[in-house]
Design brief:
This protein is of the alpha/beta class. Helices cover 48% and strands 12% of the residues. The protein has 29 helices and 19 strands. The strands form four sheets. The chain has an eight-stranded mixed beta sheet, with helices on both faces. Strand 14 (404-407), helix 18 and strand 15 (427-432) form a beta-alpha-beta unit. Helix 13 (264-279) packs across helix 26. The two termini are 32 Å apart. The structure holds (S)-3-Hydroxyhexanoyl-CoA. (S)-3-Hydroxyhexanoyl-CoA (3H9) binds next to strand 5 and helix 3.
């Protein structure tokens, strides 16, 4: 049965798509749409057409699962042209998300109506693509060039109200969408000539008079687009819309689309789209496990971490009780939270009312007993096992039955923490990444005894607070920090052997990381985990800490910093490294960038393989999600495991062996069998 059905209401043909979950424009949908338009054209009794979708959304785009497979005709560009060339006015009636190919269908329709909650966008750039069904040519003609550039190159959608204000939507519909869309179609059925987006020119005039807007846009977004191929291709295609007639512009669009589609970045970004969605799925839980109800959250610790964690819940409208030991620390913590909200308000990201609304949901207290009515309590106290055990012991006595007890520890053993309570089934790790109100990643650490419904609750809650959650097992550093360890260790050894912090960081930045290992250490604090004894100098890090070089916060770390926190290579650090080199009897040699890649990135892949082997991650793609969202691994390289697959596992194994590393069994086995981690 076709996902497209038609019915008549008077002289309006209503074309309905029913292709759950998101009405993706797969083959059957495309075929059905073409047949429906033929029906409208051929039936003299039909004076107008309404296209709408059942379920949660209007067409959310082309069917991504068809990419990379042989295309079945009709292709989407043909379908949208057929819609635009319909001899009767076509009205797209939008709810949910009109995304990508979905918005292209709407743009090819002659009119667009939408419910106020609808979103319209062309997120193709996030899949390493551009709108390839006329979208780069029709969108600037309908929404204006500036808006089209922003929407296509960033992939961010706009709301229906804004779309209506700029002419992308013709009418906002309150009430029943189908009924009002039919009434709208009735109003416009006699309009001739039928307005076609591809024939419009009015909104291009301004950019034609000022073609400099493209370079201005490129310049303004250079940092954001760095390393990515797709944003520039989107800009070029829209530039063609302005510079060339429609019929030529679409040819440019097609050529640019195919270039992206066959490139490595699109493959990586599309892989990542599904990786992110797979991460939410937990293997082996009893069917139908229901989440627990979370109405109030407790947070222990009002430091940077506790405050950031609390802000996530407040932002989602969930009340938070936050506990500190001293009044001063509590006031400082809540003050910082307010300051952060006010900074967001100053940037226009929230209203003054929303700031007050969020702060009103916060209950600061000095009494841990006040957590008694919380359904989830997250401990974000000092990173020390004894401290954590004491807190969890207390929580066991205070928390109500069924309350979930979570630790935000980055390294410590969740099972040991759970054992200090009488309810280990209610305990798990919720590892937020700093700054916790900004970073998207949440590692959900599953203890040996964590109950299935506790895990399900955590995953569901993560979605509510707009985090991407990945399940990790109990091991030192879980997934992310565990893989960071070999990288940091090798990076430090490389310093001794002759590399400089700037050289190592540069290799990582050129690879696409937001910063290298030493820039990261300076940002996080070189003193984190330091033994605090300036007299005990056993490595380069100890020497830096003893010299008060704790990183950016002190204006000095692996780099020197000026008052604007701009780094420069440090002669003092060079001296410290030199001294250590002499002390260890290491001879300085030239280090190649390739050696840095092999020793700092291949070793991460090796550790990732061990994590998989031990079952500490459910799947290789989960590891990639951790690295993209937790550490800024460039999404156009998919993540460390996808990258390793793309490089070739045999090459990784050869590099590791040549450098004297012990290769993880799983990695060796896969390389030997010619297999991949992620495909
Ligand atoms: C395009 O249009 C190219 C054209 O310009 C040119 C062509 C020539 N296809 O995200 P969710 C699945 S490119 C196939 O969890 P939500 C998804 O995998 C496309 N499947 O729901 C998941 O499956 P499962 C441009 C898709 O409510 C299920 O649907 N469009 C597609 O949080 C639910 O998804 C986009 O890039 C798809 N297009 O969010 C839009 N989309 O349950 C991509 C979703 O098995 N999609 N699935 O894990 C989205 O942004 C979100 O899915 C959406 C719903 C906001 C729609």
């Amino acid at each position: 049965m076709s996902p497209i059905s038609i019915k008549k209401h008077g002289d309006v043909l209503i074309v309905t798509s029913n292709n759950p979950p998101v009405n993706a424009l797969g083959h059957a949908v495309r075929e059905g749409l073409v047949a429906a338009i033929a029906e409208a054209d051929g039936d003299a009794g039909v004076k107008a057409v309404v296209i709408l979708c059942q379920g949660q959304t209007f067409f959310a785009g082309a069917d991504i699962t068809e990419f990379g497979k042989p295309m079945q005709l009709p292709m989407l560009p043909t379908v949208v042209d057929i819609i635009e060339n319909c001899t009767k006015p076509v009205v797209a009636a939008i709810h949910g998300t009109a995304f990508g190919g979905g918005l292209e269908v709407a743009l090819a329709s002659h009119y667009r109506v939408a419910v106020p909650s609808a979103k319209l966008g062309v997120p193709e750039v996030k899949l390493g693509l551009l709108p390839g069904a006329g979208g780069t040519q029709r969108l600037p003609r309908v929404a204006g060039v500036g808006k089209a550039l922003e929407m296509a190159a960033t992939g961010n959608p706009i709301g229906a109200k804004e779309a209506c204000a700029i002419g992308l939507v013709d009418r906002l519909i309150e009430g029943d969408l189908e009924q009002h869309a039919v009434a709208f179609a009735d109003e416009v059925k006699a309009v001739r000539p039928i307005p076609k987006s591809s024939e419009r020119d009015d909104k291009l005039a301004e950019a034609r008079a000022n073609p400099g807007i493209f370079d201005e846009f490129r310049k303004a977004n250079a940092r954001r687009f760095k390393g990515f191929d797709a944003p520039e291709a989107n800009v070029k295609a829209i530039e063609a819309a302005v510079a060339k007639p429609y019929a030529e512009g679409v040819l440019d669009e097609r050529r640019l689309f195919m270039e992206l589609m066959t490139g490595s970045q699109a493959r990586a970004q599309q892989y990542f789209f599904f990786a992110e969605r797979k991460a939410a799925k937990i293997e082996g839980l009893p069917e139908g496990t229901q989440p627990r109800d979370i109405r109030r959250v407790g947070v222990i610790g009002a430091g940077t971490m506790g405050g950031g964690i609390s802000m996530n819940f407040l932002g989602a409208g969930i009340p938070v009780t936050i506990v500190e030991m001293a009044k001063e620390a509590l006031d400082r913590g809540t003050g910082t939270m307010r300051k952060n909200y006010e900074a967001s308000a100053a940037k226009g990201r929230m209203s003054a009312d929303q700031v007050e609304g969020a702060m009103a949901l916060l209950t600061p207290t000095l009494k841990i007993e006040d957590l008694a009515d919380c359904d989830l309590i997250i401990e974000a106290a000092f990173e020390n096992m004894d401290v954590k055990k004491e807190i969890f012991g207390k929580l066991d006595a205070i928390a109500g039955p069924g309350a979930i007890l979570a630790s935000n520890t980055s390294y410590l053993n969740i099972d040991e923490i759970a054992a200090s309570t009488s309810r280990p089934q209610d305990v798990l790790g919720l590892h937020f990444f700093s700054p916790a109100n900004v970073m998207k990643l949440l590692e959900v650490v599953r203890g040996a005894k964590t109950a299935p419904d506790v895990l399900v609750t955590a995953m569901q809650l993560a979605k509510r607070i707009k985090k991407v959650a990945v399940v990790a097992g109990v091991c030192h550093g879980f997934i992310g920090n565990r893989m960071l360890m070999p990288r940091q260790m090798e990076a430090t050894k490389l310093l001794l052997e002759g590399a400089t912090p700037e050289q190592i960081d540069k290799v990582h930045v050129e690879f696409g990381m937001p910063m290298g290992p030493f820039q990261m250490a300076d940002l996080a604090g070189v003193d984190i985990g330091w033994h605090r004894d300036p007299g005990r100098i056993e490595n380069i890090r100890d020497a830096l800490c003893a010299a008060d070089r704790w990183g950016q916060k002190k204006g000095a770390g692996f780099y020197d910093y000026d008052d604007k926190r701009r780094p420069t290579p440090s002669p003092v650090v060079a001296g410290i490294i030199e001294e250590f080199r002499a002390r260890e009897g290491v001879e300085k040699r030239e280090i190649s960038d390739q050696e840095i890649v092999e020793r700092t990135l291949y070793t991460m892949v090796n550790e990732g393989a061990r994590i998989l082997e031990e079952g500490m991650a459910q799947r290789a793609s989960d590891i990639d999600v951790v690295w993209v969202y937790g550490y800024g691994w460039p999404v156009y390289r998919g993540g460390p495991m996808f990258w390793a697959d793309s490089e070739g596992l045999a090459k990784i194994v050869e590099g590791l062996e040549r450098r004297g590393f012990e290769v993880a069994q799983l990695l060796a086995k896969k390389a030997e069998a010619g297999e991949k981690f992620t495909r």
